[in-house]
Amino acid sequence: MATTTAPTFPPAAGMDILFTKAQIADRVHALGQQISADYAGKDIVLIGVLKGAAIFLSDLARAITVDATFDFVAVSSYGRARVSSGAVKLIKDIDNPIENKNVILVEDILDTGLTLSYLRGLMLQHKPASLKIATCLDKPSRRLVPIEADYVGFSIPNQFVIGYGMDFAERYRNVDDIRLFPEDTPGH
Ligand code: XMP
Ligand code: MG
User: Fold this and answer.
1) Distances (CA, A) of 137 to 70, 98, 133, 153
2) What is the position in ligand 1's atom list of the atom closest to the CA of 144?
3) For 37-62, what is each residue's pLDDT tens digit?
4) What CATH number does residue 126 fall under?
5) Is residue 62 one of the residues assigned to a domain?
6) For 23, how many CA atoms within 13 A lie in the half-sphere containing its CB?
7) Among 65, 69, 97, 110, which residue's beta carbon has the most beta carbons within 10 A?
């Protein structure tokens, strides 16, 4: 009979750091300046993908000097996000219309690209004036569909990470740096 292993949660302090809190702050600040310059004189709508992008969005928004409003969407991908099955479902839509608005979709990680291609298609149906993508991390080697972000915090190899909003089984989102989750953890 097949057995499943319950996830275990090793302490974050024992995991290798990929990006420190200070490195993240510097990079997010630079992205905020770039976005502010690109949208000078315009208003933007930041649409965060819950829950992973919540922390990145809150820091990025404060590094942006043009007028910005927030909205949030939530999606579920069947099974663990790591092994994307390709099926993405919207579980929370935007609250406010985005027609003729300058929209930036804000995500924690661009991985296979399935989530953001789905969301981009959905958002384009609302006829925004423009639509761009900002992602904290990018794993280009994992891409299954052709999609690129306009603003990328850091490009990383195919390693599972936690912290700065990113989770393993909903844990570790509040870890303030980005760390490598150990591959040999039971349940991973
Ligand atoms: P796509 O559709 O691009 O999915 O495959 C992106 C989503 O996958 C999740 N993801 C991760 N979450 N550490 C995480 O905590 C990771 O290393 C990781 N890689 C992908 C994440 O939810 C992202 O939104
Ligand atoms: Mg996510």
Assistant:
1) 20, 25, 12, 6
2) 5
3) 999 999 999 999 999 999 999 999 99
4) 3.40.50.2020
5) yes
6) 12
7) 110
